[in-house]
Structure formats: structure tokens, C-alpha cells
């Protein structure tokens, strides 16, 4: 492809296992807006362009079509399986005994793979919402986080790792108190943690905790998810790309503010997984990490764009009796208990 990126030129991070992972990947959540064929077409274009890391999940509802793209790319010789790093995640309604293996089996069938490079627990509780639901949706069966229930899931994750069906394990949407409760009980520690991370929501403490624990961080919604579903939009949310600190740096570099967010993420030491079905956008996202880095002063300026603005608040996962979305995130440093 003309002007494609040499994947060998994309910097890589080293996981605790010693395996390498590209410093940037492509997200595949269509945000209830982009249909599976649009997303899978973007994955096909992204492979041709030089992307080697893809962040999938069963709940995104598009693994089957993305799997066709992977299969065609392997058959055509565009890329070899071992050159891709493919994530997937077990959805919240598959936390029961035996469910993780079933969920991964379906994902492997859909993605047409023998293994995933990393398999994540998407959310640390079994609280389910239907795809496309609105922000007021609540499931009466939802429960607060329980370390024991989480370990039931994690033990199954460890087994699929033992079986070679997942090369690495990951957690997502965790907090420090939750990690403190479960990490000492993990036979196989997570190599990766996915967390919301963008200039207006940097999660510095959690990021530092992961780095210290030897866990590589993948930052989701790295551009501030401007097209996120309505359930994740709240009055008072900041738009990262419009914040003065980001806009000024973008102007100085003559680039879109989205690319400032991505450069900052990678230079900080985390892996952004921006989503776009638009060729111009996903191509410039990958290219952005190859040259024209932010200066130290610009990195310091982005640090000041912190607004403590969590976008994916997760209120649809609240259990009966919970006070508000803050209960999901252990804001006072302790795991929020359920109603007594
Ligand atoms: N673990 C979890 O719970 C979790 C939660 C959320 C997301 N994720 C993962 O993280 C991925 C990314 O998150 P996200 O989709 O929420 O947010 P995001 O990547 O921050 O934002 C995506 C939006 O940014 C726009 N964009 C992308 N590149 C751009 C560019 N170069 N210039 C201008 N606009 C650009 C796109 O608009 P256009 O569509 O107009 O191009 C796209 O709709 C997801 O796809 C998913 O894989 C994981």
C-alpha cells in the first residue's frame, strides 16, 4: 500500500513475559454507531497500513466479521498470525464457572484463531447491560464487586492461559483497592491492564501502581471518545481535543489535537488504542507515533490538562441500593460494600 507504515518501525513495549507489543493499536468498539462491516473494513485497511495490535471484545458484536478479515489477511500473506497482537475480553454475563472457556471458545471461532495474545476480564463484576442500552438502564441482578467472585473468574482465566488459548491475561476497569484485593491471590498475574486514559482523565495513581507492579497499561478512549454512546455522555464532560493545553500543542505541531493525545499516551509509557473507521484518521493515528514527539515542556503542559473527567462512568452496572456511579470506582480508597 502506498505510504503504508513499516510495522518494524513502530516502537514496541516489553511485557512482563518478555513478549513485545506495539506501542499503539486499533480499537474495535463501534460505539453503537458504526456497524460491524464498517469496523471490519477498517481492520482490513489497518492491517494493510501497518497496524499489528487490535483490541477486540465479544460484546462489540463484530468479532465474526473481524475474524473473516484476519483469515483473509493470513491467506493472502498480508501478515502472519504471529505478527499480530490480538486482544479479546470476556463479557460480564460470562463470569460463571465454565463460562470463560465457553466465551473464549466462541471468540476464537469468531476471530478464526487458535489463540488470542491477551484475554481480558472486561469488567470486574458480572453486571450485565444489553448492547445499545441508554444511561438509565439498570439490571436488578447487578451486585457489588466481590474478590471471591472475581477469583472464580480469574481461576478460569489462568486455566485458559495454561491451555495456551491465551498467551497473556488482562484485567480492565479496575481500581487500586480491587487490585490490592486480588493480585496477591493470582497464580498468573495480569500482563496488561486496560483503563480509561486520556489527557482529561490521566489516572496517574492507578497508572503508577500498574507500572510498579510490572503490568503494562493499555489506555482506552485515548482521544476522549468523542463519538461515545449516549449512556456515557454527561453534562460537564470535557472534550480533550478542545482543551486549551491540547489545542495549543496541536497548533504548534500543525496536527489534529487527537494526535497530541496519542503522542502523549505513548511517550508516557502506555498503549493507546484509538478507534476510527475513517482511513485518514486511523492512518494518521499510527503515523503519529513515528516522528515529531512532544517536548518535555509539552508533556508537562498535557499533565495540566487533567480534569478528573471519567467518561465511561458505568452507571448502567450499578446494583440495587448503590448510591451513584462513584460506587463503582472506590473513590475513598476502599472497595465500596454492597447494601447490608
Ligand atoms: N476495556 C473497556 O472497558 C473499554 C471501554 C471503552 C473502549 N475500549 C476500547 O478502546 C477503544 C477506543 O476507545 P473509544 O472508541 O471509546 O474512544 P477514542 O478512540 O478516544 O475515540 C474514538 C473517536 O475518535 C475519533 N478519532 C479517531 N482518530 C481521530 C483523528 N486522528 N482525528 C480526529 N478524530 C479521530 C473517531 O472519530 P471518527 O469516527 O469520526 O473517525 C472516533 O469515533 C475502543 O474501540 C475499544 O477497543 C475499551
Describe this protein with a few key phrases.
340 residues; alpha/beta; two-stranded antiparallel ribbon; binds NADP nicotinamide-adenine-dinucleotide phosphate
Short description:
The protein has 340 residues and is an alpha/beta fold. The N and C termini lie far apart (60 Å). It is built from 10 helices and 10 strands.
Folded structure, characterized:
The chain is built from 10 helices and 10 strands. With 340 residues, it is α/β, with parallel strands linked by helices. It has a single domain (18-327), classed as Alpha-Beta Barrel (TIM Barrel), CATH 3.20.20. α6 (204-212) links the parallel β8 and β9. α1 packs parallel to α2, α2 (63-76) packs across α3 (99-111) and α7 packs across α8 (257-268). It starts with 11 loop residues before the first strand and ends in a 37-residue tail after the last helix. The protein binds NADP nicotinamide-adenine-dinucleotide phosphate. NADP nicotinamide-adenine-dinucleotide phosphate is lined by residues 27-29, 31, 55, 122, 172-173, 194, 220-228, 256, 258-259, 273-278, 281, 284-285, 312. The site of NADP nicotinamide-adenine-dinucleotide phosphate has 31 residues, from α8 and α9.
Amino acid at each position: 500500500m502506498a505510504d503504508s507504515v513499516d510495522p518494524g518501525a513502530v516502537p514496541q513495549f516489553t511485557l512482563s513475559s518478555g513478549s513485545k507489543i506495539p506501542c499503539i493499536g486499533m480499537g474495535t468498539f463501534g460505539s453503537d454507531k458504526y456497524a460491524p462491516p464498517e469496523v471490519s473494513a477498517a481492520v482490513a485497511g489497518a492491517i494493510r497500513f501497518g497496524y499489528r495490535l487490535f483490541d477486540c471484545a465479544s460484546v462489540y458484536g463484530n468479532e465474526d466479521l473481524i475474524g473473516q478479515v484476519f483469515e483473509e489477511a493470513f491467506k493472502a500473506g498480508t501478515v502472519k498470525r504471529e505478527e499480530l497482537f490480538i486482544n479479546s475480553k470476556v463479557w460480564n454475563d460470562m463470569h460463571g464457572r465454565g463460562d470463560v472457556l465457553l466465551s473464549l471458545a466462541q471468540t476464537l471461532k469468531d476471530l478464526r484463531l487458535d489463540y488470542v495474545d491477551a484475554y481480558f476480564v472486561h469488567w470486574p463484576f458480572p453486571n450485565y447491560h444489553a448492547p445499545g442500552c441508554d444511561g438509565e438502564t439498570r439490571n436488578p441482578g447487578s451486585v457489588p464487586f466481590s474478590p471471591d467472585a472475581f477469583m472464580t473468574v480469574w481461576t478460569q482465566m489462568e486455566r485458559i492461559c495454561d491451555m495456551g488459548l491465551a498467551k497473556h491475561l488482562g484485567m480492565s476497569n479496575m481500581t487500586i483497592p480491587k487490585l490490592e484485593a486480588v493480585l496477591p491471590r493470582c497464580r498468573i498475574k495480569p500482563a496488561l491492564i486496560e483503563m480509561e486514559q486520556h489527557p482529561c482523565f490521566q489516572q496517574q495513581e492507578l497508572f503508577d501502581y500498574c507500572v510498579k507492579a510490572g503490568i503494562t497499561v493499555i489506555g482506552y478512549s485515548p482521544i476522549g471518545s468523542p463519538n461515545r454512546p449516549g449512556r456515557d455522555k454527561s453534562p460537564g464532560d470535557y472534550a480533550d481535543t478542545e482543551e486549551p493545553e491540547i489545542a495549543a500543542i496541536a497548533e504548534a505541531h500543525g496536527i489534529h489535537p487527537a494526535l497530541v493525545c496519542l503522542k502523549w499516551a505513548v511517550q508516557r509509557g502506555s498503549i493507546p488504542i484509538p478507534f476510527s473507521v475513517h482511513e485518514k484518521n486511523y492512518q494518521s493515528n499510527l503515523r503519529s507515533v513515528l516522528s515529531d514527539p512532544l517536548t518535555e515542556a509539552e508533556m508537562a503542559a498535557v499533565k495540566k490538562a487533567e480534569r478528573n473527567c471519567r467518561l465511561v462512568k458505568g452507571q448502567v452496572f450499578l446494583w440495587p441500593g448503590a448510591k451513584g456511579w462513584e460506587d463503582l470506582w472506590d473513590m475513598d480508597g476502599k472497595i465500596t460494600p454492597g447494601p447490608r
